[in-house]
Amino acid sequence: MTASMERSHDFTDLTGLRHALHQVPEVGLDLPLTQAIVLDALSGLDLEITTGINCSSVVGVLRGDRNVPDANRRTILLRADMDGLPLREEADISFRSRHDGAMHACGHDVHTAMLIGVAHVLAAQRDRLPGDVILMFQPGEEGFDGASVMIEEGVLSAAGRHPDAAWALHVMSGLVPRGAVTARRGPMLASSNALRVTVRGAGGHGSAPHRARDPIPAAAEMVTALQTLVSRTTSAFDPVVVTVGEFHAGTKENVIPSHARFSATIRCFDGDVLNRLETDCTRLCHGIATAHGLQADVQFERMYPVTVNDPHAVGLAEQQVDRVLGGERWHAMPNPVAGAEDFSRVLQAVPGAMLFLGASVTDEWNDAPDNHSPHVLFDDAVMSDGVALLGELARVSLFRSHASDKVLG
After folding, report:
1. Separation in Å, CA 167 to CA 110, 246, 389
2. Which candidate in 199, 239, 283, 342 could, as Cys together with 215 as Cys, close a disulfide (CB 3.0–4.6 Å)?
3. 125-179 pLDDT, tens per residue?
4. Could you say which of 142, 164, 342, 385 is catalytic?
5. Is 367 a catalytic residue?
């Protein structure tokens, strides 16, 4: 087996790269400035580069030892998301966002810089790698399902064969201490689903509600009933989160509107529970509307599936954290997190895992602003550990024998 990932590289250039990315956050699937920075940072590495058709993705294929027969080659996929969030940054830093109303509040600038660092390290070792590495730089993770777009455009076949394993490393500001790595076997992140309801009535004067059909009380009753629905129909051992994040109705205090609408996010970790929730939520909203003499348009949209980590992949990650980063850095995750990820789509097709890397700038990480906060900060110093770990996971995965467990065992 070849030598492990070197950790003597100077990663200060990654700090500058991360800061450059941080200052030009872009939201959604179209990230031309980010894409240009990534392409420039990868130039000269002798990668097979393709860019997206319907999004600003970048895919780089790093070919290992070309003398290894095709029958013995393996392919590993590494993913970094690149998009920002529609937030105005409020952190007091010298490299704060120059795009008003957009911010890298989830650390995707850190992910992108780390994967570029991994590309440079692996490129220096390519003659000792018995296979190929797909570098997946993805836009549109924050609600735009960029992973689906890239899968449709062929990222999983970019190297000419289906990946044998897939990895993603995500920084967290408040989940674990700085420099710690955590994950869990099986379901790690929830499915993300949207419930959108429009209650239709008949408008009128606020002084004469009996002459109108007021949709607001009915919609408000639905919001409350949805919370009761979860606690009364779902086992306490099947976690479910229902949060109504939008409620819109009316234009003036003395006008009864003709309609009210709200939307909710619904998170869970089990397919059977999700099927039941879709049926029950739809029936509940229609039933309340009917009881008020109103009509309801109810849409239940399944967005991201559950992120399920392969158990063997998590075991391998734990081994490499101990070996590459040292003792006490691996923290077992006792419970899944109700956030969602479109990397789940990759893990539906390829065995692998998503890992979390603690990146708080303070030792008081429990009190640090969370990801998606306009005040969130991530420590540049964790990038060297992230590069070393992610690169070593790719390298070790390439050496896994085809005769071994079909995943990563």
Report:
1. 16, 34, 11
2. 199
3. 999 999 999 999 999 999 999 999 999 999 999 999 999 999 999 999 989 999 9
4. 142
5. no
